[in-house]
């Protein structure tokens, strides 16, 4: 993978992380509503937990890709 390909990959991974974090923020906002019942708040918390796992994996992939030596050819 050359530098340009790596940059494109990392950019896409960060864009995916951004989307997941935005989704998690929306779930956190929804979960704050006092009129929500426990089932709805549990669902919000589970969506946030899932998004956090996804972000962690995407971040690991970005960091791993950046640590690999690049192919200059």
What does this structure look like?
This protein has 73 residues and is mainly alpha-helical. It has helices spanning 3-31, 38-67. The protein has one domain (3-67). It has two helices and no strands.
Order of helical and strand elements: HH
Q: Percent of residues in helical segments?
A: over 70%
Q: Unreliable stretches, pLDDT < 50, 5 or more residues?
A: none
Count structural domains: 1
Structural class by SSE content: mainly alpha
User: Kindly, what is the distance between the CA atoms of the first and last residues, rounded to a whole number of angstroms?
Assistant: 9 Å
The biggest beta sheet reads: none
Question: Could you say which overall geometry the principal axes of the C-alpha atoms support?
Answer: elongated
Mean pLDDT: 92
Radius of gyration (Å)? 17 Å
Strand content: under 5%
> What count of helical segments does DSSP give?
2
What is the number of strand segments?
0
In short:
The protein is mostly helical and 73 residues long. It is 81% helix and 0% strand. The longest helix is centred in the C-terminal third of the chain and has 30 residues, at 38-67.
């Amino acid at each position: 993978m050359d530098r340009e390909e790596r940059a494109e990959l990392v950019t896409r991974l960060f864009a995916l992380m951004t989307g997941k974090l935005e989704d998690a923020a929306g779930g956190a906002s929804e979960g704050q509503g006092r009129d929500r019942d426990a089932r709805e708040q549990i669902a919000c918390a589970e969506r946030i937990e899932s998004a956090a796992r996804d972000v962690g994996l995407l971040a690991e992939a970005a960091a791993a890709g950046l640590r690999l030596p690049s192919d200059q050819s």
